[in-house]
Amino acid sequence: MSTNKAKRIVIKIGSSSLTSMQGEISRRKLEKIVDEVVRLKDDGHEVLLVSSGAVAAGYRKLGCWTRPNELPEKQAAASIGQGLLIESYSDLFLSHGYIGSQILITRNDFSDENRYNNARNTINVLLERGIIPIINENDTITIDRLKFGDNDTLSAKVAGLVDADQLIILSDIDGLYDSDPRKNPDAQLLETVDEITEDIEAAAGDPGSAVGTGGMKSKIDAFKITMASGIDAFLGKAATENIVYDAVYGDATGTYFSPKPDNDNLNQKKQWIAFNSGPQGEVTIHRQAEVSIVEKKKSLHLSDIHHVDGRFSKGAVVRIKDLHGEEIGLGVVNYSSEKLQDVVNQTNNEQLDLKKVAVESGDLVCHLDIKVPVGL
């Protein structure tokens, strides 16, 4: 397979693919990824780089002889290393006539829709000007409960954010196998995947590298996001010669993840709801409402609400659940939790005239924007 069409490509490279045997950033490995990005840029493609490596670049300068395990030391190392890492990238790209820019983000930047759209607009301007955004999570200030989890997940969400044509994840393993190749010498490389099955998830196994934060499971989760969003993806070994260039043109050794052509791909709004919004509460509905919104694709109305959990405002994303507590999907509500709870309480006391409420404010609670499962 080959393509002459200019693509928008997100490349994720992990710490283990950038570090030396001593755990520090390898200049040689950094030069390799930059050279491959430059080849794509020279061909007219737009490229975003999601790069790990801040802690690895900074921990020796912090005075640590080994990579730190405690969060404050990791964050201190990242505060040193992030500057060193972006300086190295910038110098290398400038030597080829290209400009790199630094973008440090947190999960909150994605969970807030206004900040999400602002990040999208900023990155689009950079790409339109031919600049290479170099993205990483802001490890210096992010606490564990507010992290993306790893840069595999971040890269998939960035790919959705910018409507990328392809996500390339580079690792220390040359693709997805039907079982763990470190334990099974007969494991077979899966060259193409068009659906993440239970067998594939089971084969993902445990985290692999001691240097990075993500293992094969995190990569599978990332590919669930891209496939639900209609984005092609590739997993390959960073050390392989020309791996990035060949992955774009369909000639690389690794695993290609391609969504099925008939997939009901999520648009930009639904991607944000599904993968970034962070639902703020729960709405449990009556059985007849479940049939109505799932099978007949109807909307959810005031009379459909059984009970409400959590505090949320109008416009928030909530989980929609059945009476057994099973999640049906996600929706953006037209009422606050307080208002919905008042409706439930008054309905239970037979004091509320729903027709009057409908006349005064409309009785549409929300649509079923995202059905479950959405991939994660």
In short:
This protein is an alpha/beta fold and 376 residues long.
How would you portray this structure in words?
Pfam families: AA_kinase (PF00696), PUA (PF01472). It is found in: Cytoplasm. Keywords: Amino-acid biosynthesis, ATP-binding, Cytoplasm, Kinase, Nucleotide-binding, Proline biosynthesis, Transferase. Pathway: Amino-acid biosynthesis; L-proline biosynthesis; L-glutamate 5-semialdehyde from L-glutamate: step 1/2. It comes from Thalassobacillus hwangdonensis. The structure is a single chain. The chain is 37% helix and 19% strand. The longest helix has 24 residues. It is α/β, with parallel strands linked by helices. Strands 3-4-2-1-5-9-10-8 form an eight-stranded mixed sheet, sandwiched between helices. A five-stranded mixed sheet has the order 13-11-14-15-17. Strands 6-7 form a two-stranded antiparallel sheet. 40% of the residues are buried. It folds into two domains: 262 residues, Acetylglutamate kinase-like (Carbamate kinase); 93 residues, Archaeosine Trna-guanine Transglycosylase, Chain: A, domain 4 (Roll), CATH 2.30.130.
SS element count, helices: 13
The description of the largest β-sheet is: 8 strands, mixed
Beta-strand portion reads 15-25%
Low-pLDDT parts are 207-214, 354-361
N-to-C order of helices and strands: EHEHHEHHEHEEEEHHEHEHEHEEEEHHEE
Mean pLDDT: 85
Q: What is the CATH architecture assignment of the largest domain?
A: 3-Layer(aba) Sandwich
Helical content band: 25-40%
What is the SS-derived class?
A: alpha/beta
Number of strands: 17
Structurally, the number of domains stands at 2
What is the alpha-carbon Rg in Å?
Answer: 23 Å
How do the strands line up in the largest sheet? 3-4-2-1-5-9-10-8
* CATH topology-level name of the largest domain: Carbamate kinase
CATH class of the largest domain: Alpha Beta
Q: Can you tell me the CATH superfamily of the largest domain?
A: Acetylglutamate kinase-like
How widely separated are the two ends? 30 Å
Rough shape?
globular
